[in-house]
């Protein structure tokens, strides 16, 4: 049984931001009781803001581990007084993963790591690598948490490999998981791997995923619920009825008809 059964924003406000974006205007009694629900729509439709609002209410952990006090969550916090959640199981265990957090976090950790090594004058030709890691961990809490949470330095992986590594480390128990555009770091083959990861996880755990995506490959997950957000509404739909699917299929079937003006 999933954790959340419905999401509802009980406000008729239409301005200012974030009340003027489609996902916020049309999030009325949204059924998310399926194990996997996808939120899809054009850039700027507000699907990420809606996910952030739910994550903020649930206080789900996310990559930088500093809670929801950052300015980027101001829009979500302004919506909290209007957010109603209907529960099947009221237990906020899980993880919130935004695509921008992933890249920003990897880059910031790498910069901190290099700065510390330079400041300490450490050379891994002279000092064993594990000793260097222990010294840097002692000097910086963030680096320590990376290795504690994810097992090793993430910059030893490609972005796609790092993403899947984090999924294996953080999505490993029964819970509710909110994922914002996971495909941003994943090649088509890694998107397939991600689909298999979801299938294997749900065989083991009675978890719930709410995923904002642009990827028709992910949307094809069997028996998932799809909500398409437009300026007019937020409605359940099928994969074949989505703009993402029809445009992608049309392009791949006849790319020359789209690109002939480039010749």
Q: TL;DR?
A:
This protein is an alpha/beta fold and about 260 residues long.
Order of helices and strands: EHEEHHEEHHHHEHEHEEHH
Main sheet overview: 6 strands, mixed
CATH topology heading? Rossmann fold
Overall outline: globular
Structural class: alpha/beta
* Count, helices: 11
Rg is 20 Å
Whole-number total of structural domains? 1
Considering DSSP H and I runs of 4 or more, what fraction of the residues is helical?
A: 40-55%
What number is the mean pLDDT? 84
CATH-defined architecture: 3-Layer(aba) Sandwich
Strand content: 15-25%
CATH top-level class: Alpha Beta
Number of strands: 9
Which stretches of 5+ consecutive residues score pLDDT under 50?
none
N→C terminal distance = 54 Å
Task: State the main characteristics.
single chain, 263 residues, alpha/beta, Rossmann fold, six-stranded mixed sheet, three-stranded antiparallel sheet, 11 helices, globular
Please describe the topology of this protein.
Elements: E1 4-9, H1 22-25, E2 30-31, E3 36-41, H2 47-58, H3 74-79, E4 83-87, E5 94-98, H4 99-120, H5 129-139, H6 141-150, H7 159-170, E6 176-180, H8 188-204, E7 208-212, H9 216-219, E8 225-229, E9 234-237, H10 243-253, H11 255-259
Parallel strand pairs: 3-7, 3-8, 5-6, 6-7
Antiparallel strand pairs: 1-2, 1-4, 8-9
Question: What does this 3D model show about the protein?
Answer:
- With 263 residues, the chain is α/β, with parallel strands linked by helices.
- It has a single domain, classed as 3-Layer(aba) Sandwich (Rossmann fold), CATH 3.40.50.
- It contains eleven helices and nine strands.
- A hairpin with a 4-residue loop joins strand 8 and strand 9 (234-237).
């Amino acid at each position: 049984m999933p954790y959340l059964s419905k999401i509802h924003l009980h406000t008729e406000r239409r301005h200012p931001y974030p009340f003027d974006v489609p996902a916020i205007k049309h999030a009325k009694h949204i059924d998310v009781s399926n194990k996997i629900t996808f939120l899809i729509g054009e850039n700027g439709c507000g699907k990420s803001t809606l996910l952030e609002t739910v994550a903020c209410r649930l206080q789900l952990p996310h990559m930088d581990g500093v809670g929801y006090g950052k300015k980027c969550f101001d829009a979500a916090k302004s919506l909290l007084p209007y957010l109603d959640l209907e529960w099947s199981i009221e237990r906020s265990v899980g993880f919130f993963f935004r695509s921008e957090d992933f890249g920003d976090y990897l880059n910031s950790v790498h910069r901190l790591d290099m700065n510390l090594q330079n400041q300490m004058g450490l050379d891994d030709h002279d000092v064993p690598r594990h000793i260097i890691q222990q010294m840097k961990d002692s000097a910086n809490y963030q680096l320590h948490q990376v290795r504690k949470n994810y097992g090793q330095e993430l910059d030893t992986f490609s972005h796609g490999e790092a993403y899947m590594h984090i999924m294996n480390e953080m999505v490993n128990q029964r819970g509710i998981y909110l994922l914002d555009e996971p495909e941003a770091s994943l090649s088509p083959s890694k998107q397939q791997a991600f689909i298999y990861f979801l299938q294997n996880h749900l065989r083991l755990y009675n978890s719930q995923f709410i995923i904002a995506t642009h990827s028709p490959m992910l949307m094809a997950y069997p028996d998932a619920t799809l909500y398409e957000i437009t300026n007019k509404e937020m409605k359940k739909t099928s994969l074949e009825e989505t703009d993402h699917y029809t445009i992608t299929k049309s392009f791949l079937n006849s790319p020359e008809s789209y690109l002939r003006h480039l010749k």
